[in-house]
Amino acid sequence: MAIQRRISVQHSDVFPMDAVLKPSKDGVVTPVIDFNAEKRADGSRAQQVDKETGLLVWQVTVIDLDVEAGKKDTALTVKFLAPQQPIPPSNKSGLPWIPVEFVGLSALPYVDDNGSRPRIAWSYRAEGMVEPGAAAGGRGSAASKAADNKDAA
Fold it and tell me: Where is this region: Disordered (predicted)?
């Protein structure tokens, strides 16, 4: 069996200590700009469209809360394919960052040669996002499960 380009992964595999969304000046979920598209009269460019599905490409900036994550792996982008802008989970934390768990997460490895030494990097795509622990079947991330077990003890 051949491995497909994208590899299905669980949220807890990628974010073992959970993750939060980082809002930007443009909002939490932003369109991915198609830099290959012609510039419009106002100088802007069209939103990127996925070649396989024809769906619009959206993105969020994620902060990985794993203390062992390297400098280049702490803030990363997760993309979505959707006809409309995806809605992030509500923020009940009281902080500017929104706790999140990704559903239908997949990873695509690639070589990042933007430095003195090439490295393997990952491009992430998700089908959806929910509050931590609210994923299908009640399966939360590892950190959510650990907190639940601590509360039960």
Answer: 132-153
Q: How many residues does the chain have?
A: 153
Residue with tokens 């599905």: 53
Two structure tokens written together for 88: 């992030």
Look at residue 130 and tell me if it is in a domain.
yes
CA distances (Å), origin 18, targets 103, 109, 137: 13, 21, 18
Indicate the pLDDT class of residue 143, thresholds 50, 70 and 90. Answer: very low
Domain range enclosing 33: 7-152
Residues 62, 19: Cα–Cα separation, whole Å: 7
In a domain, 2, yes or no: no
Residue 1 domain-assigned (yes or no) = no
